Amino acid sequence: MSASQLVLGVKLRDDARFDNFHGDRNTDAAKRLEAVCHQPAGVPVVALCGDSDTGKSHLLQAVCHYGENQGKAVVCISIAELQPFGPEALSGLEAQEIICLDDLDRIAGDRVWEEAIFHLYNRIQDQGGLLMVSLSDLPANLPFELPDLVSRLSHGLTIQLGIYRDDDRLKILMARAEKRGLVMADDVAGYIMRRAPRRLGDLLGILDILDENSLQAQRRLTIPFVKAVMGW
């Protein structure tokens, strides 16, 4: 499958934008990333580094939404989506003005993939594009085998994201509920926070379930309703 076919299959999430990236913990990181979008000149690559629960994917998607609104050719795709097609799936991505690759560390230790990413990096630079990647840690701390790739990834802009605290998770939960038109009182939010897993992704997954089941509840969430839907 060619890169152009892959690009056509990628759909940006409507809820992943800079203006709805909530939670104080990583606000400054989001602002730095948005600033790069405004003025990308001189930045060869941006590496978003952090745990899987820090909003990296949201921010990469937000970058692409911003780029699209500026009339730029963009692509945001996870390495997991590309891996089944082999490194040749990267061919042609440099034609985009902004290329966002999520979970790049998935290919760490695979020499063929690493070399393909390295060559893609060079092609993007030749075309004057902007490469953004997400990683679980700093490039030098990951098991990459190709020193030149580590060097390239380390000499751009590195933005580190932190794990969300409980107050941030609560704020994000309330904001996402409001965005969906769900009425969630403080006591209901507190109940969900006490019962839900600590990962933000799991917490927002619970909100998906409640949203799907809330029409009969007329969009107002109560503790008995939440308890019944979630089996708590």
Integer average pLDDT:
86
- The helix tally amounts to 10
Percent strand equals 5-15%
* Helix share, percent: 40-55%
Rg, nearest Å? 19 Å
**DSSP strand count:** 7
Strand count, sense and barrel status of the largest sheet are: 5 strands, parallel
> Low-confidence parts lasting 5 or more residues at pLDDT below 50?
1-5
Class by alpha and beta content: alpha/beta
Our measurement of the CA-to-CA distance between the termini, rounded to an integer number of angstroms, reads: 45 Å
Main sheet strand line-up = 2-3-4-1-5
Molecular shape: elongated
What is the helix/strand order?
Answer: HHEHEHEHEHEHEHHEH
Quickly describe the structure:
It contains ten helices and seven strands. The chain has helices at residues 3-8, 27-38, 56-69, 79-82, 111-127, 147-154, 166-179, 186-195, 200-212, 223-230, and strands spanning 45-49, 74-78, 98-102, 130-135, 157-160, 183-184, 220-221. The relative contact order is 0.15.
Q: How would you describe this protein?
A:
The protein is an alpha/beta fold and 232 residues long. The chain starts with a helix and ends with a helix. Helix content is 46%, strand content 12%. The relative contact order is 0.15. The strands form 2 sheets. It has a 5-stranded parallel β-sheet, sandwiched between helices. Strands 6-7 form a two-stranded parallel ribbon. The chain has helices spanning 3-8, 27-38, 56-69, 79-82, 111-127, 147-154, 166-179, 186-195, 200-212, 223-230; strands at 45-49, 74-78, 98-102, 130-135, 157-160, 183-184, 220-221.
